[in-house]
Every structure is written in structure tokens, then in C-alpha cells.
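>> received
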Amino acid sequence: QFYAALNAFRAVKNSNGNGSKCAMVKTLYRSAISALRSAAELSPSTFSNKVYLLEAEMLAFERKHQEAKASYAAAITSSDSVGYVHEHGLACELAAHHYKKIGEVQTAIDFFQQSKLCYIQWGSQMKVESITQQIENIQQHPL
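>> returned
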């Protein structure tokens, strides 16, 4: 449910998030968050970071920027503390997109850099190249 919710939400955000599609995705998100919260009660080290990240994405979409920042930070800390380097990278990457969107360019670059280091450690050259390109783009065109 975690990755399905993230992918569905990205599709809605890319289409400006209007209409019944948005409502359907929010319902999917809430369902995924609820299921993951239940799983996190049984295994916090496995699921807490996922709950925080889904909450961050929902809060960012709802333009609750301060709450989103806190949830991104919690997702990053949680995934790092249990050694899930790929999920740590994902949390940093999504946080970077959020900070870029709200105009905090240097913070976005910092999170992109952090995600790049995670993806290097994880061994995903394709993600490293993608993040490198995003860093170059934001440096050339800050807003």
C-alpha cells in the first residue's frame, strides 16, 4: 500500500490535484496511513517511517507546510535510525521536492544532496544520476 499510495499521489499532484481523482487518492492515502499505523504498532522500526512519509506528502498537498516539514523530518530520522538507506533517500528526495515547491531552495538542495548520498550507498546509479540532474536544474533555475 505504501508505494501504491505514493505513486497515486504523485500522479494527482502532477495533474494539479483536482476533482474526483484527488478525492479518490486522498481516500487511498488515508487507508494506507491507517493500515501502516496498525502495522507500526506491531513493528515500529519497519513501518513508522512509512507512516511519517505518507503523512508528510498529504500535509504538503494540503499546504500545511510546517506540519509537512515535521513529518518529513520524522520520516528521515526514522528511516535513518533503522538503516533503511533507500527509504531514507526517498524521504530526503520527497522533502527536497517539498522545500523546492515552497521556495526554500537551499534546503531543497541540501535534501537532494542527502538523498544522493543515500542512493550512492544503496547502489542505485540511476537514482544518483536523476538526483544529480535535479540538483543541477535547481541550481541553474532556483525558482
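>> Helices lie at 2-14, 19-42, 44-61, 65-81, 85-101, 105-122, 125-140.
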